[in-house]
Amino acid sequence: MRLTLFVCLIIGALINYAAGVDPTNFKTCEQSSFCRRSRKVQSSGSKYALIRGTLNTYTDSVTADLINKENHHQFTMKLEALVGSTFRLQIDEKQPLRPRYRVEHALKGKPETAQIRVLESDELTITSGSAKAVIQGDPFRIDFYENDVHVVSVNAKNWLYFEHLRQKAQAPAGEAADGGDGAQQEQQEQNSDAVQSPSEPIDEPGTWEENFKSHHDTKPYGPQAVALDFSFPAAEMLFGIPEHADSFALKSTSGTDPYRLYNLDVFEYIVDSKMALYGSVPVLYGHGPQRTAGVYWQNAAETWVDIYTTETNVVSSLVNFVSGSRKSTPPAAHFISESGIVDAFIMLGPKPIDVFKQYAALTGTHELPQLFSLGYHQSRWNYNDERDVTSVSAKFDEYNMPMDTMWLDIEYTDGKRYFTWDKFKFPEPLTMIKNLTELGRHLVVIIDPHIKRDNAYFFHQDCTENGYYVKTREGNDYEGWCWPGSASYPDFFNPVVRDYYASQYHLSKFKTVTEDVMIWNDMNEPSVFNGPEITAPKDLVHYGNWEHRDVHNLYGHMHLMGTFAGLQQRDPNQRPFILSRAHFAGSQRYSAIWTGDNMADWTHLQHSTKMCLTEAVAGFSFCGADVGGFFGNPDAELLERWYQTGAFLPFFRAHAHIDTKRREPWLFPERTRQIIKSALLKRYSYLPLWYTSFYELEQTGEPVIRPLLTHYPLDKEAFAIDNQLLVQQRLLVRPVMQQGVSKVDVYFPAIDDKKNGDYWYDVDTYQRQERAGYESIPVDENKIPVWQRGGSIVPRKERQRRSSKLMLNDPYTLVICLDRQGKAAGTLFLDDEKSYAYRDGKHIYVSYEFADNQLTNRFIGKPQYKSEAWIERIIIAGLGHVPTPATITVNGISQQLEVEQRNGAIVVRKPAVKMDVDFALKLNN
Amino acid sequence: MRETNLELILLAILTYTLNAVQCGEVPRPRGVSLAKAALYQPQADGKWSCLDGSKTIPFTQVNDDYCDCADGSDEPGTSACPLAQFHCTNKGHQPVEIPSSLVQDGICDCCDGSDELPAVGCANTCIELGAAAAIKRRNEAELHKRGAEKRQEMISRGKQMKADRAARRSELNARIKEQESLKVEKEQLKQNAEALETEAVEAFKEQQRELDAETAQAEQEPQQMRVEASLSFVRYDTNKDGFVEVTELMVDMNLDRDRNGVVTVEEARYFLDERDRMDLDAFVTLAWPRIKPLKMLADGLFQPPKAPAEEEELPQAADVEGAELHNPEPSEEQADMETGAAGEEEDDGEDDEDQYDDEEPDVGVGEATPEVETTTAAPAYDPETQRLIEQANEARNAYEEVARQIREIEHEVKEIDEQEGKDYGPHEEWAVMDGECYTYEDREYVYTLCPFDRVSQKPRNGGAETTLGRWDQWIGEGASKYSRQKYTQGAACWNGPQRSAIINIKCAMEPRITAVSEPNRCEYYYEFETPAACDSDAYTASAQSMHDEL
């Protein structure tokens, strides 16, 4: 008996110490029959053509029929022009045996269409503003132009592949007898008198049923894949399609599996991998010096994306960029989805920021978050009990470190029954919450989608009685295995279920929290421990009789919709904060995301910037990675560098696995504690910039953090850089993410092709970088290499508080860094940091401009928020001289202000002007 | 006029924080303690120097909500300087210094409310808090005083134990010397006796062999013969079918009569009286007489008898201190078995066994084997030889007895040395706790602390006990070294480190565990109280020094 246990321990240890994910738990393209089939077309090509005489022209769109010339199956094609140089291309079967799924809820609303002009000759030319589409009939192909520059082609490679729905070929008599699949036969009978459609059999295993490991997929509707290629003639590189633990620049998939988009709970994921992760955002961009364009492939089924670049790696592409020659075929992407229709949005730019905005116009942005959620979050699986939570919070005060939010992972619940508390560990949650909120802090608790199958659990009772769970093919409630043990999964696609779910958040139902407690939705891929690939079987049935196969990547999104509605209804005056692991296009409207269960090693730290950059351009600016790494124990140096990196990613949360050692900052030596504290203080000092950036994200769709190419599109050397990031166009951040280094190479991007760069000012010393190119920058353990762009003005708050909420009335510091012309500009947004009043204009939005030795402010909209805050100092870097003194003029009345030199900048002492007051500040020579 | 206007427009916020704030009797800037009041006096020209001397500023800029000094000394009463400290006078209670980050943030941190603007409406709670603190201090002092009396007892007992150990240790030293020389003597006697014995036995064997040649079979007692034969039968009958077959004999190389390395079928059949197989009776009468001589040849004939010696030892052992550790063990277990004890009790037994498995070699509890009987079947010697054998046995026993005595003394010495090696505190006040155990139950587990030995955890709903750690050392910092113990090398965690435990110790009248937690996986924290921690003098001293600081 004891021996057995011992042996088990050894075996267990061996399994557990094997590093990282077991890739064989997840499918390869070869193991996924639709991917295998669709990929074949890459060698043979397909033959689709427009059917003459079927063209219909409307004010904003054209439609026509398409035919597969090999099997004569017919399709309808619709090309619609949208406002903002965007086209939408939809292709569906003309008369499908049953409806094919069309993604809902991903777009923020019905896209606004634009008028078109149509010119019909040999080809069909559709013009809308500066955007133009040219359709060729045979073979079918569309070329898209932005201001007459060819930027995207659809089906240029003839890889369009559309598996029409078909009846299962009659099996030989003997086989049919014991095949005995009732539902399938019924289906066939129903369709026996359907339109006569050519249905050549697809003669391959995996077509009508498919096995993976011990799991069987019944595939009652047979093959139904859709695939299409997009070429980017003006592009040098491709990026996008999160979520992958991979470089920002997409790599060629020739000789490898395609990038996979299928929301999965991957244990100890590996980096530099095209494997699927928790989120799927099927938007992809092609970028070249002259043009940037994008494609949003709106499909929620399992999707694989093949990437064709002429080069296989960044180094050789750089060589090619430098040589400037490229006659070969342009980069292209082949999207392959298991079901649904072709629904592609082609965004024509022309510049990177334009495409990002075009995508944001379709799927939306995160709304302005409450300020606290941009502060520092302290999480761990798990803070064990009330005393633990209270004492960790108190320790932050003892060590005088700011902290905004404490998090509770699954152990706070009563046996993983969400919306309940463990009454022994948390007998008085309301008191505990009050202890936090009295200090301006918040609490976030986890609410996962899986529901414990416990007949005494009200939630399970309700879902069972009302039929709210996702169903099996046979119509029973699906049962999977997750944290609570046996669990079922609410069908959030059903609006009634979402309403029910939302109502559970109401304080009259969830009485043991307050309106200041926000929500973490985890495991919503959904994670099913005993399911195929740790998720739900594809033949489950959702609301509307759709298969899970059709909607898988949207499940988390629908979960978030329910939570978001719940929090808004709970307190209409507070902007909800939700963190989600699963996400799809559009989920950014409801939640922040993090990069999931990463590991405490340097490569995962490095991937935090790569992954968040990709997420940011795909709509998810509110992105972060678990500081310290979820699995494993970081050493002091790794933890220090991770805090420094996390401080400059939008979502800043430390989190750790239950088996790791505690790693709150005070558990480390003084040195580490100080480094972490100064990283935290730096984060808090920049909160006004983060906050303003998020306001502007909501207003414009411009990402908060950006890859260098966003503002330096001409600099080919900057394209693939993903260990540096821009915060708006104001900061350049290059966190130290390597072990034991005393210097880092930082790339200062060029604004033109003559290697001219912006001025960049070190935010600690105001030392100026004047030339573009790589610079070796010395770093000590305290250094976070960050520069402010010459030409920008950054608002900061330099007073330390326990939490961001307590900074509300604290004064601002304006940091002005001058460009070559001695000019700078920058905005500041402020409001109550919490409610929706800003949407009624209760805010102050101000643009500061500095030119000719004078700083002025200009309000954008009328300042209607009453703020106690004021400007305590103005720092100006890049002046040739030290002026004494400065003169501030308010309402025609002037006063002298002291000016003092500090480091490489001058400091104007205490203008003391309130935020909603017009002023002019003149530097005297 | 112009100035006033400007101030109205620009500086509405600053009115309260300006430096002219009065604090009690001595005028000084807000946030400055009485002790430092003298440092905040303007110079004749109305200027003032930062306390670090880094800069000189107009005195009006002290507490003007703008940080001028690198050391933050110009803003003791505002939040403007990151390094500044705000002094809460807290009249009626203890004054404290709070960091500037807590000043004017809307939260009342000083009990007199002085860190916030009046608009916040902080209540002055210093009097109540002061009174409550005084009561608490009094209670604690009283507790320490009364606890110290108990501690004093523990100290005397601890010191007595130390003295006892020292005395016992030197007694044992003397005894071990005695026994060592006795051992040399006994060894000599034993060797002499054994020499005589060997000689006599050899002679007897020689004689016996001659005798055997004639009357071997005839003189054997049939009964004894049958016993031997039966045992052999059982051994040979490997398939347990009640017959010994040819093939079963063929494995015994002793039966290889022609020494060609193989027991042939013919050879085997010879022993079976040319049959294929034999039952027990036939074997006893027909086969065994043929097999036995070969067996005896192979085994040799003589084995010194030793079973009786062991039997004699046990009653004596009970007299020796230290052996009682093992003695209750078997009896308890037997009791359990006899009464068919309930599951829980059985668990206890198993756990105890675990415990000893770890450290002690198996002491051979209640081992009974059939072999015992066979050894009694010694040949009957002639009286003279028998006498010499008995003498040799006595000499051997005497020698063994001395050796055993030495081992026991050494064991006890080791135990004493181990105890001496443990740090029972500066005054031996913790010594009495070695050997005690304390338990604490929470929702799921029963936690045990046996000071200076081990800590463990056992699920309340049954299941095995897990060692959380074994005594390692005191780990309190500096003067409070004896406020914290560490136990390490506990059972290894699943996929993790070995368990360990830290014991935080406070003064109380009765020893008990007040809480157990596991903040890190596999790292346990016990909160433990005992009068041994009630050091009244140290408490008074620290309370005094705290008071002096104030």
UniProtKB/TrEMBL annotation, chain A:
**Pfam families the UniProt entry points to:** Gal_mutarotas_2, Glyco_hydro_31_2nd, Glyco_hydro_31_3rd
Domain Glycosyl hydrolase family 31 C-terminal positions: 701-794
The leader peptide range reads 1-20
Transmembrane regions listed in the UniProt entry: none
**Gene Ontology MF annotations:** alpha-glucosidase activity; carbohydrate binding
Q: Which CDD domains match?
A: GH31_GANC_GANAB_alpha (cd06603), GH31_N (cd14752)
Keyword line: Endoplasmic reticulum, Glycoprotein, Glycosidase, Hydrolase, Signal
What's a GO cellular component annotated to this UniProt protein?
A: endoplasmic reticulum
- Which GO biological process categories is it annotated with? carbohydrate metabolic process; N-glycan processing
Q: Could you tell me where this protein is found in the cell?
A: Endoplasmic reticulum
Please tell me whether the keyword Hydrolase is annotated for this protein: yes
Q: What is this protein called?
A: Glucosidase II subunit alpha
Q: In which pathway does this enzyme or protein participate? A: Glycan metabolism; N-glycan metabolism
Which residue intervals make up region (Disordered)? 171-216
Where's the Glycoside hydrolase family 31 N-terminal domain?
A: 77-306
Q: Identify the residues that the record assigns to the Glycoside hydrolase family 31 TIM barrel domain, covering every copy.
A: 367-692
Family membership noted in the UniProt record: Belongs to the glycosyl hydrolase 31 family.
Automatic annotation (TrEMBL), chain B:
Instruction: Indicate, by first and last residue, each region the UniProt record lists as having compositional bias (Acidic residues).
Output: 343-362
Any GO BP annotation: N-glycan processing
Offer a single GO CC term for the protein.
glucosidase II complex
Which keywords does the record carry? Coiled coil, Disulfide bond, Endoplasmic reticulum, Signal
| Coiled-coil regions listed | 385-422
Name all MRH domain ranges: 435-536
Gene3D superfamilies given in the database record = Low-density Lipoprotein Receptor, Mannose-6-phosphate receptor binding domain
InterPro entries given for it? EF-hand-dom_pair (IPR011992), Gtb1-like (IPR039794), LDL_receptor-like_sf (IPR036055), LDrepeatLR_classA_rpt (IPR002172), Man6P_isomerase_rcpt-bd_dom_sf (IPR009011), MRH_dom (IPR044865), PRKCSH (IPR036607), PRKCSH_N (IPR028146)
Q: PROSITE patterns attached here?
A: MRH
Entry's SUPFAM superfamilies?
Answer: EF-hand, LDL receptor-like module, Mannose 6-phosphate receptor domain
Q: Would the keyword Cell inner membrane turn up in this protein's UniProt record?
A: no
Q: Where are the transmembrane segments?
A: none
This chain's protein is named Glucosidase 2 subunit beta
Write the signal peptide boundaries. Answer: 1-23
Region of interest: Disordered: 141-170, 326-384
Which Pfam families does the UniProt record give?
PRKCSH-like, PRKCSH_1
Top-level taxon: Eukaryota
Q: Locate the compositionally biased regions of type Low complexity.
A: 363-380
What organism does the UniProt record list as the source? Answer: Drosophila virilis
* Entry keyword annotation includes Coiled coil: yes
